[in-house]
Design a protein that fits this description.
By secondary structure, the chain is an alpha/beta fold. It is built from 11 helices and 20 strands. The relative contact order is 0.17. Bound molecules: zinc ion (ZN).
Protein backbone atom coordinates (compact mmCIF):
# COMPACT_ATOMS: atom_id res chain seq x y z
CA UNK A 1 0.00 0.00 0.00
CA UNK A 2 1.35 3.42 -0.97
CA UNK A 3 0.07 7.00 -0.95
CA UNK A 4 1.22 10.59 -0.60
CA UNK A 5 0.00 12.69 2.34
CA UNK A 6 1.28 15.50 4.51
CA UNK A 7 2.80 14.67 7.87
CA UNK A 8 0.81 16.07 10.75
CA UNK A 9 3.89 17.25 12.63
CA UNK A 10 5.92 18.93 9.88
CA UNK A 11 3.37 19.47 7.11
CA UNK A 12 5.90 17.85 4.79
CA UNK A 13 4.50 15.69 1.94
CA UNK A 14 5.71 12.11 2.20
CA UNK A 15 5.22 8.92 0.23
CA UNK A 16 3.95 6.47 2.79
CA UNK A 17 4.38 2.74 2.31
CA UNK A 18 2.80 0.00 4.37
CA UNK A 19 3.86 -3.62 4.39
CA UNK A 20 2.22 -6.45 6.33
CA UNK A 21 0.10 -3.98 8.28
CA UNK A 22 3.10 -1.93 9.46
CA UNK A 23 4.69 1.35 8.40
CA UNK A 24 7.57 0.58 6.06
CA UNK A 25 8.52 4.01 4.70
CA UNK A 26 7.97 7.77 4.95
CA UNK A 27 9.89 9.15 1.98
CA UNK A 28 9.94 12.93 1.43
CA UNK A 29 8.64 14.00 -1.97
CA UNK A 30 9.73 17.17 -3.69
CA UNK A 31 6.51 18.59 -5.13
CA UNK A 32 4.32 20.69 -2.81
CA UNK A 33 1.15 18.50 -2.68
CA UNK A 34 -0.43 21.16 -0.49
CA UNK A 35 -3.88 19.80 -1.35
CA UNK A 36 -3.08 16.43 0.21
CA UNK A 37 -4.74 15.44 3.46
CA UNK A 38 -2.73 15.32 6.66
CA UNK A 39 -1.70 11.91 7.94
CA UNK A 40 -1.37 11.46 11.71
CA UNK A 41 -1.24 8.54 14.13
CA UNK A 42 -4.89 7.53 14.51
CA UNK A 43 -6.72 8.70 17.62
CA UNK A 44 -6.64 6.68 20.83
CA UNK A 45 -9.75 7.39 22.90
CA UNK A 46 -9.61 6.24 26.51
CA UNK A 47 -13.34 6.75 27.10
CA UNK A 48 -15.98 5.17 24.86
CA UNK A 49 -19.19 4.28 26.72
CA UNK A 50 -21.16 3.19 23.69
CA UNK A 51 -22.33 4.38 20.34
CA UNK A 52 -25.34 4.57 18.13
CA UNK A 53 -27.98 3.13 20.45
CA UNK A 54 -25.67 0.63 22.20
CA UNK A 55 -24.40 1.18 25.75
CA UNK A 56 -21.49 -0.99 26.88
CA UNK A 57 -22.67 -0.91 30.52
CA UNK A 58 -25.76 -2.93 29.84
CA UNK A 59 -26.94 -6.27 31.23
CA UNK A 60 -27.96 -7.12 27.64
CA UNK A 61 -24.51 -6.48 26.13
CA UNK A 62 -23.42 -9.05 23.52
CA UNK A 63 -20.21 -9.69 21.59
CA UNK A 64 -21.91 -8.46 18.41
CA UNK A 65 -22.88 -5.17 20.07
CA UNK A 66 -19.33 -4.64 21.31
CA UNK A 67 -18.04 -5.14 17.75
CA UNK A 68 -20.64 -2.71 16.38
CA UNK A 69 -19.59 0.04 18.83
CA UNK A 70 -15.90 -0.38 18.03
CA UNK A 71 -16.38 -0.54 14.27
CA UNK A 72 -18.51 2.61 14.56
CA UNK A 73 -15.36 4.43 15.65
CA UNK A 74 -13.60 3.74 12.33
CA UNK A 75 -15.11 6.68 10.52
CA UNK A 76 -14.03 8.98 13.35
CA UNK A 77 -10.34 8.18 12.96
CA UNK A 78 -10.06 6.05 16.10
CA UNK A 79 -7.81 3.02 15.81
CA UNK A 80 -7.60 2.13 19.50
CA UNK A 81 -9.85 2.82 22.43
CA UNK A 82 -10.78 1.82 25.92
CA UNK A 83 -14.36 0.56 26.04
CA UNK A 84 -15.62 2.09 29.27
CA UNK A 85 -17.79 0.36 31.86
CA UNK A 86 -19.46 2.68 34.35
CA UNK A 87 -21.05 2.30 37.80
CA UNK A 88 -23.53 -0.56 38.05
CA UNK A 89 -24.30 -3.54 40.27
CA UNK A 90 -21.58 -6.18 40.66
CA UNK A 91 -23.51 -8.57 38.42
CA UNK A 92 -24.16 -5.86 35.83
CA UNK A 93 -20.50 -4.85 35.66
CA UNK A 94 -19.34 -8.47 35.67
CA UNK A 95 -21.58 -9.18 32.69
CA UNK A 96 -20.31 -6.20 30.68
CA UNK A 97 -16.66 -6.87 31.53
CA UNK A 98 -17.02 -10.59 30.77
CA UNK A 99 -18.69 -9.83 27.46
CA UNK A 100 -15.94 -7.40 26.51
CA UNK A 101 -13.30 -10.00 27.40
CA UNK A 102 -15.08 -12.61 25.31
CA UNK A 103 -15.34 -10.15 22.40
CA UNK A 104 -11.58 -9.47 22.64
CA UNK A 105 -10.90 -13.21 22.67
CA UNK A 106 -13.30 -14.23 19.90
CA UNK A 107 -13.48 -11.29 17.51
CA UNK A 108 -10.37 -10.04 15.74
CA UNK A 109 -12.00 -6.70 14.84
CA UNK A 110 -12.49 -6.07 18.56
CA UNK A 111 -9.01 -7.29 19.53
CA UNK A 112 -7.41 -4.95 16.99
CA UNK A 113 -9.25 -1.92 18.37
CA UNK A 114 -9.09 -2.34 22.14
CA UNK A 115 -6.10 -1.21 24.21
CA UNK A 116 -7.63 -2.13 27.55
CA UNK A 117 -10.89 -1.61 29.39
CA UNK A 118 -11.61 1.56 31.37
CA UNK A 119 -13.60 0.94 34.56
CA UNK A 120 -15.13 4.29 35.58
CA UNK A 121 -16.78 3.72 38.93
CA UNK A 122 -18.34 2.29 41.00
CA UNK A 123 -15.83 3.66 43.57
CA UNK A 124 -16.74 7.31 43.03
CA UNK A 125 -18.34 10.09 45.05
CA UNK A 126 -22.02 9.66 46.00
CA UNK A 127 -22.55 13.45 45.99
CA UNK A 128 -24.79 15.08 43.40
CA UNK A 129 -22.60 16.80 40.82
CA UNK A 130 -19.38 14.80 41.24
CA UNK A 131 -21.39 11.63 40.70
CA UNK A 132 -22.59 12.92 37.32
CA UNK A 133 -24.98 10.48 35.67
CA UNK A 134 -23.72 7.42 37.60
CA UNK A 135 -26.65 5.82 39.50
CA UNK A 136 -26.40 6.56 43.24
CA UNK A 137 -27.78 3.15 44.22
CA UNK A 138 -24.66 1.46 42.78
CA UNK A 139 -21.97 3.89 44.03
CA UNK A 140 -19.76 2.29 46.68
CA UNK A 141 -16.41 2.52 48.43
CA UNK A 142 -13.29 0.80 47.01
CA UNK A 143 -13.24 -2.94 47.60
CA UNK A 144 -10.13 -4.85 46.51
CA UNK A 145 -11.80 -8.28 46.62
CA UNK A 146 -14.63 -7.07 44.44
CA UNK A 147 -12.20 -5.43 42.02
CA UNK A 148 -10.22 -8.66 41.69
CA UNK A 149 -13.41 -10.55 40.83
CA UNK A 150 -14.26 -7.94 38.23
CA UNK A 151 -10.72 -8.05 36.82
CA UNK A 152 -11.04 -11.86 36.62
CA UNK A 153 -14.32 -11.48 34.71
CA UNK A 154 -12.51 -9.06 32.39
CA UNK A 155 -9.75 -11.66 31.91
CA UNK A 156 -7.22 -9.07 33.06
CA UNK A 157 -8.15 -6.46 30.45
CA UNK A 158 -9.03 -3.64 32.89
CA UNK A 159 -6.14 -1.23 32.32
CA UNK A 160 -7.59 2.03 33.63
CA UNK A 161 -9.72 2.70 36.72
CA UNK A 162 -11.37 6.04 37.50
CA UNK A 163 -12.19 6.47 41.17
CA UNK A 164 -12.66 9.10 43.85
CA UNK A 165 -9.95 9.14 46.52
CA UNK A 166 -12.35 10.58 49.10
CA UNK A 167 -12.64 7.17 50.78
CA UNK A 168 -10.39 6.26 53.68
CA UNK A 169 -9.17 3.07 52.03
CA UNK A 170 -8.39 4.76 48.68
CA UNK A 171 -4.59 5.10 49.02
CA UNK A 172 -4.10 1.39 49.78
CA UNK A 173 -6.49 0.44 46.98
CA UNK A 174 -4.67 2.69 44.51
CA UNK A 175 -1.31 1.21 45.49
CA UNK A 176 -2.60 -2.32 44.77
CA UNK A 177 -4.09 -1.24 41.43
CA UNK A 178 -0.86 0.40 40.30
CA UNK A 179 1.19 -2.60 41.43
CA UNK A 180 -1.08 -4.83 39.34
CA UNK A 181 -0.39 -2.71 36.24
CA UNK A 182 -3.59 -0.65 36.22
CA UNK A 183 -3.48 3.10 35.51
CA UNK A 184 -5.42 5.02 38.17
CA UNK A 185 -7.35 8.18 37.39
CA UNK A 186 -9.05 10.59 39.79
CA UNK A 187 -12.57 11.47 38.69
CA UNK A 188 -16.15 11.98 39.83
CA UNK A 189 -14.65 13.17 43.09
CA UNK A 190 -15.45 15.39 46.03
CA UNK A 191 -12.07 14.70 47.64
CA UNK A 192 -10.27 17.35 49.66
CA UNK A 193 -6.69 18.47 49.09
CA UNK A 194 -5.10 15.93 51.41
CA UNK A 195 -7.03 13.01 49.84
CA UNK A 196 -5.94 14.07 46.36
CA UNK A 197 -2.36 14.40 47.54
CA UNK A 198 -2.51 10.93 49.13
CA UNK A 199 -3.96 9.44 45.93
CA UNK A 200 -1.16 10.88 43.82
CA UNK A 201 1.44 9.74 46.33
CA UNK A 202 -0.09 6.25 46.03
CA UNK A 203 0.30 6.32 42.24
CA UNK A 204 -2.75 8.00 40.66
CA UNK A 205 -1.49 9.61 37.45
CA UNK A 206 -4.50 10.91 35.56
CA UNK A 207 -7.51 13.19 36.10
CA UNK A 208 -10.57 11.91 34.27
CA UNK A 209 -12.49 14.58 32.29
CA UNK A 210 -11.23 17.34 34.58
CA UNK A 211 -13.89 19.99 35.19
CA UNK A 212 -16.79 17.62 34.57
CA UNK A 213 -18.32 15.32 37.15
CA UNK A 214 -18.01 18.22 39.59
CA UNK A 215 -20.26 20.27 41.88
CA UNK A 216 -22.23 23.03 40.18
CA UNK A 217 -21.11 25.41 42.93
CA UNK A 218 -17.68 25.02 44.45
CA UNK A 219 -15.74 26.69 47.26
CA UNK A 220 -13.41 29.15 45.53
CA UNK A 221 -10.24 27.68 47.05
CA UNK A 222 -8.96 25.28 47.88
CA UNK A 223 -10.92 22.79 45.83
CA UNK A 224 -10.30 19.60 43.86
CA UNK A 225 -9.95 21.46 40.54
CA UNK A 226 -7.07 23.66 41.68
CA UNK A 227 -5.49 20.69 43.46
CA UNK A 228 -5.49 18.59 40.30
CA UNK A 229 -4.47 21.48 38.04
CA UNK A 230 -1.49 22.24 40.26
CA UNK A 231 -0.35 18.62 40.61
CA UNK A 232 2.31 17.99 37.95
CA UNK A 233 2.18 14.23 38.48
CA UNK A 234 -1.37 14.22 37.06
CA UNK A 235 -2.10 14.34 33.34
CA UNK A 236 -5.61 15.66 32.69
CA UNK A 237 -8.11 14.27 30.22
CA UNK A 238 -10.49 16.88 28.83
CA UNK A 239 -13.76 16.60 26.95
CA UNK A 240 -13.21 19.47 24.52
CA UNK A 241 -16.44 18.94 22.60
CA UNK A 242 -17.58 22.56 22.99
CA UNK A 243 -20.33 21.59 25.47
CA UNK A 244 -18.69 20.01 28.50
CA UNK A 245 -16.23 22.86 29.11
CA UNK A 246 -16.46 26.47 27.93
CA UNK A 247 -13.63 27.52 25.58
CA UNK A 248 -12.02 29.72 28.24
CA UNK A 249 -11.85 26.79 30.66
CA UNK A 250 -10.27 24.52 28.04
CA UNK A 251 -7.65 27.22 27.37
CA UNK A 252 -6.97 27.84 31.06
CA UNK A 253 -6.72 24.13 31.90
CA UNK A 254 -4.30 23.51 29.01
CA UNK A 255 -2.16 26.51 30.03
CA UNK A 256 -2.09 25.26 33.63
CA UNK A 257 -1.42 21.59 32.86
CA UNK A 258 0.71 22.39 29.75
CA UNK A 259 0.11 20.57 26.48
CA UNK A 260 2.38 17.73 27.56
CA UNK A 261 0.08 16.89 30.49
CA UNK A 262 -3.20 17.11 28.60
CA UNK A 263 -5.03 14.45 26.63
CA UNK A 264 -8.40 14.43 24.92
CA UNK A 265 -11.21 11.94 25.40
CA UNK A 266 -14.66 11.91 23.83
CA UNK A 267 -16.70 10.13 26.57
CA UNK A 268 -19.33 9.36 23.92
CA UNK A 269 -22.36 7.45 25.17
CA UNK A 270 -24.68 5.00 23.46
CA UNK A 271 -27.43 7.57 23.17
CA UNK A 272 -25.14 9.69 20.98
CA UNK A 273 -26.44 10.00 17.47
CA UNK A 274 -30.06 9.16 18.35
CA UNK A 275 -32.80 11.64 17.36
CA UNK A 276 -33.93 14.28 19.88
CA UNK A 277 -36.31 12.94 22.53
CA UNK A 278 -36.51 11.22 25.88
CA UNK A 279 -35.08 7.71 26.28
CA UNK A 280 -35.97 5.60 29.28
CA UNK A 281 -34.13 2.52 28.01
CA UNK A 282 -30.63 3.81 28.75
CA UNK A 283 -28.69 1.91 31.45
CA UNK A 284 -27.75 5.42 32.69
CA UNK A 285 -31.41 5.97 33.63
CA UNK A 286 -33.71 8.35 31.78
CA UNK A 287 -31.82 10.60 29.42
CA UNK A 288 -32.87 13.19 26.93
CA UNK A 289 -31.32 14.10 23.60
CA UNK A 290 -31.78 17.84 23.02
CA UNK A 291 -32.28 19.51 19.63
CA UNK A 292 -28.58 20.44 19.43
CA UNK A 293 -27.55 16.82 20.06
CA UNK A 294 -26.53 17.25 23.72
CA UNK A 295 -27.34 14.26 25.92
CA UNK A 296 -28.66 15.30 29.36
CA UNK A 297 -30.29 13.65 32.37
CA UNK A 298 -34.02 13.78 31.62
CA UNK A 299 -36.06 16.60 33.13
CA UNK A 300 -33.33 19.25 33.27
CA UNK A 301 -30.90 20.86 30.86
CA UNK A 302 -27.72 21.29 32.91
CA UNK A 303 -26.36 17.89 33.91
CA UNK A 304 -24.80 16.26 30.87
CA UNK A 305 -25.14 12.48 30.69
CA UNK A 306 -22.12 11.93 28.46
CA UNK A 307 -20.95 13.26 25.16
CA UNK A 308 -22.19 12.91 21.61
CA UNK A 309 -19.21 14.29 19.69
CA UNK A 310 -16.29 12.05 18.82
CA UNK A 311 -12.70 12.98 19.53
CA UNK A 312 -11.83 14.73 16.24
CA UNK A 313 -14.03 17.63 17.37
CA UNK A 314 -11.81 17.96 20.43
CA UNK A 315 -8.68 18.06 18.28
CA UNK A 316 -10.12 20.94 16.24
CA UNK A 317 -11.47 22.69 19.34
CA UNK A 318 -8.23 22.81 21.33
CA UNK A 319 -6.65 24.53 18.32
CA UNK A 320 -9.49 27.06 18.25
CA UNK A 321 -10.03 27.48 21.99
CA UNK A 322 -6.47 27.35 23.28
CA UNK A 323 -4.27 28.29 20.31
CA UNK A 324 -2.66 24.84 20.35
CA UNK A 325 -0.80 23.92 17.14
CA UNK A 326 -1.86 20.99 14.96
CA UNK A 327 1.07 18.78 15.99
CA UNK A 328 0.32 19.23 19.70
CA UNK A 329 -3.45 18.82 19.29
CA UNK A 330 -2.88 15.54 17.43
CA UNK A 331 -0.53 14.30 20.16
CA UNK A 332 -3.22 14.95 22.79
CA UNK A 333 -5.57 12.58 21.01
CA UNK A 334 -3.16 9.91 19.77
CA UNK A 335 0.42 9.36 20.92
CA UNK A 336 0.01 10.63 24.46
CA UNK A 337 -3.07 8.56 25.40
CA UNK A 338 -1.39 5.58 23.69
CA UNK A 339 1.63 6.01 25.97
CA UNK A 340 -0.53 6.40 29.08
CA UNK A 341 -2.38 3.16 28.41
CA UNK A 342 0.82 1.34 27.49
CA UNK A 343 0.20 0.87 23.76
CA UNK A 344 3.90 0.92 22.98
CA UNK A 345 3.76 -0.42 19.42
CA UNK A 346 2.14 2.80 18.29
CA UNK A 347 3.24 5.83 16.30
CA UNK A 348 5.16 6.83 13.19
CA UNK A 349 8.06 4.45 13.31
CA UNK A 350 9.14 1.97 10.70
CA UNK A 351 7.83 -1.39 11.90
CA UNK A 352 5.05 -0.01 14.14
CA UNK A 353 1.46 -0.87 13.31
CA UNK A 354 0.13 1.35 10.51
CA UNK A 355 -2.67 3.00 12.49
CA UNK A 356 -3.35 6.31 10.83
CA UNK A 357 -5.97 8.97 10.37
CA UNK A 358 -6.10 11.16 7.26
CA UNK A 359 -7.93 14.47 7.48
CA UNK A 360 -8.39 17.91 5.94
CA UNK A 361 -8.50 21.11 7.96
CA UNK A 362 -11.33 23.42 6.89
CA UNK A 363 -11.28 27.22 6.75
CA UNK A 364 -13.41 27.49 9.89
CA UNK A 365 -10.94 25.37 11.87
CA UNK A 366 -13.03 22.19 11.77
CA UNK A 367 -11.57 18.89 10.73
CA UNK A 368 -12.92 16.33 8.24
CA UNK A 369 -11.66 12.78 8.35
CA UNK A 370 -11.01 11.33 4.91
CA UNK A 371 -9.65 7.88 5.82
CA UNK A 372 -8.72 5.64 8.74
CA UNK A 373 -6.10 2.89 8.73
CA UNK A 374 -6.20 0.17 11.38
CA UNK A 375 -3.15 -2.11 11.42
CA UNK A 376 -2.55 -1.27 7.78
CA UNK A 377 -6.12 -1.95 6.67
CA UNK A 378 -8.21 0.84 5.18
CA UNK A 379 -11.30 0.69 7.42
CA UNK A 380 -12.93 3.94 6.31
CA UNK A 381 -12.72 6.46 3.46
CA UNK A 382 -10.30 6.59 0.55
CA UNK A 383 -6.54 7.05 0.42
CA UNK A 384 -4.86 9.77 -1.65
CA UNK A 385 -2.94 8.78 -4.80
CA UNK A 386 0.64 7.57 -4.70
CA UNK A 387 1.74 10.12 -7.32
ZN1 LIG B 1 -17.42 10.31 33.78
Amino acid sequence: MEFIARRWDTGEPVRVTIHNGRWSGFESVASPHSDRPFLAPAWVDLQINGWSGIELTDPQLTVERVAAVLQGMDRHGIARCCPTITTHSFDGMRHSLGTLARAIREDETVRDRVCGIHMEGPYISPEDGPRGAHPLVHVRSPDWDEFQRLQDAAEGHIRLVTLSPEYEQAPGFITKLVESGVVVAIGHTAADSSAIQAAVDAGASLSTHLGNGAHRTLRRHPNYLWDQLAEDRLTASLIADGHHLPPGVVKTFIRAKTVSRTILVSDVVGTAGRPPGRYDDSPLGSVEVLEDGRVVIAGQRQLLAGAFRTIEHGVANVMRFAGVGLAEAVEMASLRPARIIGATDYGFRIGAWADGVLFQMNGDGSLDITATLNRGRLVCGTLPAAE
